[in-house]
Amino acid sequence: MFKDIAVYITYEILKLEKGTHLANAVEFFIYDTQKIFFLLTTVIFVVSIIRSYFPPERTRQMLSHKKLFIGNVFAALLGVVTPFCSCSAVPLFIGFIEAGVPLGVTFSFLIASPMVNEIAVVLLWGMLGWKVTLLYIATGLVVAITAGIIIGKMRLEKWVEDYVYDMKTVQCVNPQILTFKERIDYAKSYVLEILKKVWLYIIIAIGIGGFIHGYVPQDFVTRYAGPDNPFSVPVAVLLGVPLYASCVGIIPVASALISKGLAVGTVLAFMMAVTALSLPELIILRKVIKLPLLAVFVIIMTVAIIMVGYMFNAIL
Known about the structure:
75% of the residues lie in helices and 0% in strands. The protein is mainly alpha-helical. The chain has one domain (54-176, 216-315).
C-alpha cells in the first residue's frame, strides 16, 4: 500500500520522470515517510501501555538483586524491552547507583537501551528484513553485556561523580494504579508528545536517505567504504560519532546506504556509533561520570563496534 501511494504521488501527481535522480529520491522519501510514521505510531502506542505497568523504580529494584554476570545479561535484555521517556537517562543512571546496582550492570542497560530499542527493531525489520534485524539485536546485546562486564571488572566506581551518590531519583512515570482507559489515554498523549519532538528529525533523516538513494552514485560509496576498503568500518564509526540521531532516525539513512552497495557490517557499525557513541550523548553522560571513565567507555565501545562491523562483513 505504501509503495503504491508513493508511486502514485511521484509519477501521477508530481509528474516526475521515471528513472531520474529526483524521481528516485522523491519516491524513496514518500514511501519511507509513510512506513516509518505508521510503524512509529503503532509501536509507541503499544509500548506506552506496557510502560504504564513498568516504571523505572521497578527496574532498579530488579537489577539491584542480581549477581554481576546475570545482572549484565538481564540489564541488557531489559534495555531492549523497557521503554523510558527522554528525561530518564541521567536520573535512571543515578537511581541505579543509589540502589546499589553494580556500575557494570548499569552500563549494560544504558548501552543496550539506545542501541536495540523496540522501535528500532520494528523499523529495521521492515526495511532490511528479519535476518539482519536478528543479527543486529544479538550483536547489540553482546556488545552491551561484554562492555558492562569489562567496566564492572575494572572497578571504576571512583570515577562516578560524587554528587551522584547523594541525589534522589527522579521518576518519569507515576507508579499509581491506573484504569485501562487511563492507560489508553496516556498512550495516546505520549504518542503525540513523542511525535511532536521527533517528527522533524525523522523527516530530515528520511530526506538524507532519499538524497543518498537518488543522487549518490554507486561507485562513490563503494570506493570509500566498500568491501575492498580495509578501513571502511573504522571510517564509518568515526563518521557516526559527531552525528546525533536515534536508531529510528538513522535507519532510513542506513537503508539507503545498503541499497547503494555499502557492506551491511559497515552500516551497522555506523548505526551503533551514532546511537551509542554520539557526541551529544557523551556530553550528557559526562554530567554523571568523570573523564577517565568516559574515556574507558568510549574506547571499549569503539573497539567492540569495529569488531562487530568486521564480523558482519565477513559473514554476510
